[in-house]
Amino acid sequence: MDAAPNCAICNAPAYPECPCEAERLQIAVKQAEQRIMEERLAVIRDWVINHARQHILNAFERLTSTRKQAHSAYLASLPNYEVYMRYSGHPPIHPMYVATLQTQIAEAHAELKRGIDADWRASVLRYPEVLDYFYGLVELRLPSDQSQSVVEPPFAAAGYADRGYTDPSRLSVEKKKKKRRDREGSLPPERHIALHRVMRGPPPVPTPPLQHGAYPRPPGPFPY
Ligand SMILES: [Zn+2]
After folding, report:
1. Which one of 14, 117, 167, 213 is most buried, counting C-beta atoms within 10 A?
2. What segment(s) does the record annotate as region Disordered (predicted)?
């Protein structure tokens, strides 16, 4: 006899394989990620954005403060600039000098503005690199496969009685089966195959009939 369990979702025979279990697993994984991971990702995202933004702003401040100092030094070096400022733009000098100076000041201000725009652009365009850097600082820690919380999750002790996707018309049958399992006090061997199927996909061909209890252990970390 072939003891591979029927599809847990639609109860179709194990072969040919129906896609229900794989599809439900994908959905369940998505939902678990939404429940458990999205909040964590939001915390990480905020942290990364804040640090990236602060870094970019600091870098921009450094660039522009250097540029503004150079700008001030240039203005101070212009002929008649000191007297021009002292008389608030109406110095007692020939208007020709004033006009020349005003042109130079206007050009310097325009140059400063272009420079600041360039600094800002250069800083902001580094966001992808800076975001990568700060995301890279986040440590992702997976527990050891031997750790107690992995080997023996708190809900493992109770085992898994059937309580999902049961067609109501089959309820009495399932209850009888469960009672029998409880009497036998162990997991039915079909569980091995089911676990193997959901987590790793079906075997490529139907397995030949096996003696009850003679299933090979599935590869991988399952402690059964
Ligand atoms: Zn199915």
Report:
1. 14
2. 161-224
